[in-house]
Specification:
The protein contains 15 helices and 20 strands. Strands 3, 4, 5, 6, 7, 8, 9, 10, 11, 12 and 13 form an eleven-stranded mixed sheet that branches. It folds into three domains: about 1-35 and about 225-335, no CATH class; about 45-130 and about 160-220, no CATH class; about 340-545, no CATH class. With about 550 residues, it is of the alpha+beta class. A hairpin with a 3-residue loop joins β15 (about 430-435) and β16. Helices cover about 50% and strands about 15% of the residues. This is PH domain-containing protein. Keywords: Membrane, Transmembrane, Transmembrane helix.
């Protein structure tokens, strides 16, 4: 593997299959031209994947409770909204059935049924447009490959791990939904007796959706491991979101990503070398604060389209190392023009944020020098501040509102909120970062862990996130809190996360500002899991026993 004069890390000629064509800009434009219209969403934020199933279960329960639809019909009416995002193949077939059910069984509430039916039709149209566009995408990619095929690299040939987690999760959700739907006799209130089965049917439907996703994922991944598959020469790099971005072979400026895919690296014997979401080791200044990797040449195995499974043989991220095999742990997700505009706006905002961050870093360094005289401090400590406690207060207010509910809604939402609070609030309310002469200490659920000064890779704030990342096997440390940047600018307030990041960065970049002593166990903070256990016990008791 070598570095070309254009700065791209190139594959050795022996690693490229014979006759493999380059996916050039013209062919790539034909592929992007086959993408669905801009009003059809093909990418979803992680928060949507988490929130949408919860909202649909609650929506099905409410439809059943208010008698808009029978339990099974309420579940079928809301599931197309999940399918439109997660499994458009299912929505294309079953959404028309859902529309028929809404119109046939929703006579008791005609206006609600009409509104719901219209929304389901919209979800069906979006799903149909998305699935229909896959055919032209496949055709454009096959034309670009010129019919050249090759077998997968030996590191992944025969290995098939995709879908295992989804199968387990789908079975669990299906069983849980069946139990909730069958337990109709435990509800005394008629509304609860109607709402709980609807929520159960919906939860079981989500489980079946996950099982379908597992089956499709496994089927598509198995298709790569049969006969030789089409191959294309492309350029790739690791994005700021730790996904692999794929570019046309002649896009040496990395101006227009075609699609992204979550991958993991396997070594020559098929063992995991890097799981999806882990960071590659730092190579000097090879990465900036956003962790964008170098541009590398790669061979793409498989036909890329929205939802496809692919494998990549790429040049290593360090010159002189052998090529690596990256197997997909997620499906292909095209990058649309709307996504590009959103990224461009985010980049402009990032530039402004970095300028403000640098100003605050310099101000923090000056303040440390003024406060100490010599520039060194005994020990630096940062902990949760008023924004974190405000977030906890909001959760408490929401819990108080839920306390007035009754029946299945209180049970489902109360236990769900308790679980989220037990996992999130301990770190949000009791986080602590301690600096000493050797590095930074971070407390967590199970105890404290250290990051030496010379292994720090990133210290930054973004929106409501404070993040510190390191090299090697140190997992990134993050904490989140609500934030209103426009209000901060209006009243001239410096968010505590901004100050914390600036002070840590000042110490990281200037060794003279670092503490001169070692921190003690008391200073580093204790494990926060006892607080989580207390919150879980208190919340569960309140849901089950309070009137």
């Amino acid at each position: 593997m070598s570095t070309g004069s254009d700065g791209v890390l190139r594959l050795p000629d022996a690693a490229i299959p014979e006759g493999c064509r380059s996916w050039d800009g013209e062919a790539a434009r034909r592929w992007t031209g086959a993408l669905p219209s801009r009003w059809v969403p093909v990418r979803a934020h992680l928060a949507l994947f988490v929130a949408l199933p919860l909202v649909t279960v609650a929506g099905a329960g409410l439809l059943g409770e208010y008698g808009v639809l029978p339990a099974w019909g309420a579940a079928l009416a809301v599931l197309p909204f999940v399918w439109a995002v997660l499994r458009p193949e299912a929505a294309r077939i079953l959404a028309p059935v859902a529309v028929g059910v809404v119109l046939a069984y929703g006579e008791a509430s005609p206006l609600r049924s009409l509104a719901l039916g219209s929304a389901v039709v919209l979800a069906w149209a979006l799903s149909l447009a998305r699935v229909t566009a896959r055919g032209p995408q496949r055709a454009a990619a096959l034309i670009a490959s010129g019919g050249v095929t090759a077998a997968l690299p030996s590191a992944v040939a025969g290995r098939l791990e995709r879908g295992r987690f989804l199968f387990g999760a789908g079975l669990l959700l299906t069983v849980a939904g069946g139990v909730l739907g069958a337990a109709t006799g435990v509800w005394e209130d008629p509304g609860d007796a109607a709402g709980a089965p609807a929520a159960g049917w919906c939860l079981a439907g989500l489980g079946l959706t996950v099982l379908l996703a597992a089956a499709l994922t496994r089927h598509r991944a198995a298709g790569l491991r049969g006969a030789p598959v089409p191959v294309l020469r492309v350029l790739v790099r690791e994005s700021a979101e730790v996904e692999t971005e794929v570019f046309a072979a002649d896009d040496e400026g990395a101006l227009r990503p075609l699609f992204t895919v979550a991958t993991r690296v396997v070594d020559g014997e098929g063992d995991d070398d890097k799981s999806d979401g882990e960071d590659a080791e730092d190579a000097g200044d090879a990465f900036d604060d956003e962790r964008v990797g170098p541009l590398r040449e790669a061979v793409l195995f498989g036909v890329p389209y929205d939802g496809a499974e692919v494998v990549l043989l790429t040049a290593a991220e360090r010159a002189g190392e052998p090529p690596v095999v990256e197997v997909g742990v997620g499906a292909v997700r095209p990058v649309t023009e709307w996504t590009l505009r959103r990224r461009s706006a985010a980049a402009r905002g990032k530039a402004r944020s970095e300028a403000r961050q640098e100003e605050r870093r310099v101000a923090a360094a000056d303040q440390v020098r003024r406060e100490t005289g010599t520039g060194a401090v005994p020990a630096g400590r940062w902990r949760a501040g008023w924004p974190d406690w405000f977030a906890g207060l909001l959760a408490l207010v929401y819990a108080a509102v839920l306390a007035g509910d009754t029946g299945w809604w209180r049970m489902v939402s109360g236990l769900g909120l308790t679980l989220v609070a037990a996992l999130v609030l301990p770190r949000r309310l009791a986080w602590r970062v301690t600096a000493d002469r050797e590095g930074l200490w971070f407390n967590g659920l199970r105890g404290s862990r250290q990051l030496p000064w010379d292994e720090i890779r990133t210290v930054r704030t973004k929106a409501g996130e404070l993040r510190v990342d390191g090299t090697g096997d140190f997992p990134e440390w993050t904490v989140h809190t609500p934030r209103w940047a426009w209000l901060e600018r209006r009243i001239g307030l410096v968010h505590p996360y901004e100050r914390t990041a600036a002070e840590i960065t000042a110490m990281w970049r200037d060794p003279q500002l670092r503490p001169t002593e070692l921190s003690t166990l008391a200073h580093r903070g204790r494990a926060v899991w006892p607080l989580g256990a207390l919150i879980a016990a208190a919340g569960t008791a309140a849901v089950l026993f309070l009137p």
